[in-house]
Amino acid sequence: MDENIDKLLKHKVSWLANCGPDDDIAISSRIRLARNLEGMPFPVAAKIEILNQARGAIELAVRNTACFKKDPVVFELEKLSELDKQVLLERRLVSEEFIEDGQGAGIAVSDDEIFGIMINEEDHMRIQAMKPGCQLSEVWDAVNAVDDKLSEELPFAFDSNLGYLTSCPTNVGTGMRASVMLHLPGLVLAEQVDAVIHGVSKLGLAVRGIFGEGSNNLGNLFQVSNQSTLGESEAQIIERLDAVIKQVISHEKNARHSMLEKKQNFLLDHVGRAYGVLRHAYRISSDETLNSLSALRLGVDMGMFSSVDIQTVNELFVIIQPAHLQKYAKRELDSEERDTYRASLVRDRLRSIDNNKH
Amino acid sequence: MDENIDKLLKHKVSWLANCGPDDDIAISSRIRLARNLEGMPFPVAAKIEILNQARGAIELAVRNTACFKKDPVVFELEKLSELDKQVLLERRLVSEEFIEDGQGAGIAVSDDEIFGIMINEEDHMRIQAMKPGCQLSEVWDAVNAVDDKLSEELPFAFDSNLGYLTSCPTNVGTGMRASVMLHLPGLVLAEQVDAVIHGVSKLGLAVRGIFGEGSNNLGNLFQVSNQSTLGESEAQIIERLDAVIKQVISHEKNARHSMLEKKQNFLLDHVGRAYGVLRHAYRISSDETLNSLSALRLGVDMGMFSSVDIQTVNELFVIIQPAHLQKYAKRELDSEERDTYRASLVRDRLRSIDNNKH
Which residue in chain B is spatially nearest to A357 when comparing CA positions? Predict the structure, then answer.
């Protein structure tokens, strides 16, 4: 057990706060920048000594530049347990590929989890910033500042024609992947989400479920991101992405309003039953929880529940996942035990939510 | 709309009170006596003038003898709307066959619904008494007293060898059908109910679902009754039936205790989810309501809910049925409207139930 992981667990996840623009539908905005150190082989081709050397240099630069503005929390991946790695994944601080192999890899995060750097993932650095709501420009400013600070200390691999050089050619250029996490229960219930995804894809953007490949519509959470990193400036990419996301948000709002007008009882029933299950079940799977939380979040956004802390609902999306449950329980839990523990956790957290229309 | 029906609807159903012996499992006890008037053809063979004559004589005797101890409420079946007839059926005051054809038929009930007489059903009279819990002897005393009083005024068709003569040979003798309504969710959940039903049937007793043929285990409510009416005295029949029912009750208790010991979370989850649905759904079918009420009743009996009025739960089994809903709504409701109205009624009634372990 790494005590720094326990420290993270004690904080609220700040990018899940409900204080960003369009936070009724946009949960969070994230930008990741791929950066590599000049004159060093990419991690995939590097020996362990080189990886360690790169990691050491990056950690030092993070501390020296105070690029997160606060002291960073730093982890060396090989020292983390499987469970702790999963916690970082569930908090969206690292990628799935990253935690599969740990030799020479590391993570530096700000303790509010707004900033994070994966060290020696596919590239020497993946610098990320994450904020609540739909605010890609602000996130860009934040991550750009970290990038600038680090570039004062570290020599970045950069080509004046191509831009930033990356391990995988799909990231060359800006090295930027910007994404917004959207909650789209209205479009899913109205069976319009496939059409919207199709339309967004045709504009050269990617849409996928949040919980990994094949997770489909789990929790009705979708991530919309740019596909190309070349031929446009960061600002242009963000502007284009932002415009599309605003459109998706407007489609989602229309779907909700139309359902509230034409199928009010269906909607109330959908939300009410989900709340009933979350509030009173004693065993609940991860999938059922995510989908029920989605319905509850919809109900909260639509004013069906008073005195509600939407951040509680947002946070539940993260903390009902297996690694978080086991950290809270302070022991390993098998699948059945997790279902019981998850139900108990959800009941406890929701007890404070008053239900003003029931 | 018959105003006497409205009067019934305003009262709590007294045989659904939770004040009888073994009322955690036995909801109510009922005895019906088949009686016919000497010298008159059975209703199936009688012309309308004869039916009217029989009905008149019986109504008069009911009033003259004050056999219900209070003024009876009397209905002539042909004057009742289909909806009002269904209300009587849902309150278990009449049989399904009885309300199919109404010419010359009638009903007399005490306003607490403990006593009722179907006039010109298969026999000239089916005298019934119903009380909460498992108390067949007390019900026998009650119905026997009514029978005695009426026999002072009315000449009953009786043969010194055969006993009471009835339209259908299966009722000849005592003319008595005694039954107890049992709530057996434990046996159903433990998948032992079929074995118990089989065992009871082998003892010459009948077990069937409450909500008509093919209703199976709806609400986990079962009616156990005597099959034979000949060759034993009423007391003997009741004693035998009562002994078997006590055994079924003990099986049900064992099933519950064993489940609470070995599968506590399964049980809590089953009850909790049912409560969640009843408390928060906005559309709910009759079948789902009955099955969820069964789980809730189990939870109440097992102490999962405090400050609970079990009579509320018992009554819901009756009043969520279609005719009651439409009487409360004061208009015809189609199936979809009933599901919405039912959900609203259930939410309202359960709002007062505090849930002390959630």
Answer: B280
